[in-house]
Amino acid sequence: MKNRCYIKAAAMALLLSISAPAAVSAAGPGEGLITIETGQTAYGTATPSELPANTGIVRPVEKYSYRDMEQDIQELQAKYGSRMTVNVIGTSADGRNLYEIVVGNVNAGKHVMIQAAIHGREYMTPLLVMKQLETALEQYDTGSCEGTAYSSLFDQAAIHFLPMVNPDGVAISQFGLQGINSPLLRQTIQNAYEKDLAEGRTTQSMDRYLTYWKANGRGVDLNSNFDANWENLNDLGHPSYAGYKGESAASEPESRALVNLAGKYSWSLVLNYHSMGEVIYWDYEGNRVQAESKELADLVSGITGYRQIGTSGGGGYKDWVQIRETPIPSITVEVGSVACPMPLSEWARVWPQNETVWAAVLSWAVSR
Length: 368
What we know:
The structure is a single chain. By secondary structure, this protein is an alpha/beta fold. It contains 12 helices and 12 strands. The strands form 3 sheets. The protein has an 8-stranded mixed sheet with strand order 3-4-8-5-9-12-10-11, with helices on both faces. Strands 1-2 form a two-stranded antiparallel sheet. A hairpin with a 7-residue loop joins β1 and β2. α2 packs parallel to α3 (about 125-140) and α9 runs antiparallel to α12. It is globular and about 60 Å long. Mean pLDDT is about 90; it is low at about 5-50.
């Protein structure tokens, strides 16, 4: 029998199983064409009134911004204050807060991290994680997973939601240079464009180029900035919209905040939300928690219907937490079936696939 964590996901899997295969293509300003055969079709266009989870405090919008997130955190805290703790684990290069919202018992000794938007243009993932947070709070006393009440799970563990770990990158992708306050960072971004243009990494106008921005405000790709084979990654040599690994591992304030957080608690797992492709990366060379990471991948794949891919390229947060001295089981979940930045219509696909993932991984952590 399917438990409550899986009911909606099972219905989604059934729907997707009767869809015709579709090829999904994505190309950034200087990237080659990437084609991913997902075997799943998108829902097509949808108006906001047709979108799932279009009620409550966290509402789907075309560009879910840092300001939207901050306002939603404040409103959630006003409504559910006793059930959530809001921490600031650092600040971005442009001075934005890096938020950690904790639900559950921080003294229980089991901790789950869900982080999103380490890449700027992947800004549907903060919306997803914020909606998962609201669902957890809303169903705190009424929901259950595998026959265990959510309230009981929260007594035995804490879940840490990090909805937007690269807020500067999100602001650049959404609003261009106007999204950045620092004149120095604006000049860095301008220089990055000119370098990429000269090297043929882009042929786009600057406005179009910036919509594809993955990096942080200093032009560093944060998911290439961790100490997991960092020294052997390709050295682009200058800030860019994507692909620049930085001057050293964990050179950026955002990556340092994640490194520091990894050492603060006894983590049961880290789930990293990215987009796009509807795949799950679960392994890496030197992974010290391979069996546990594969269990997580199997669990989340069974819910979302996403296919699994063993390895990734190095320098990522998942890679680093898997190989560190005190390793943490971890997976990277790539949501969405169309190129980033994703249109709002893709929310009708992403949300039903991932609505219960947070509860399932929390239950997994408690059961171990």
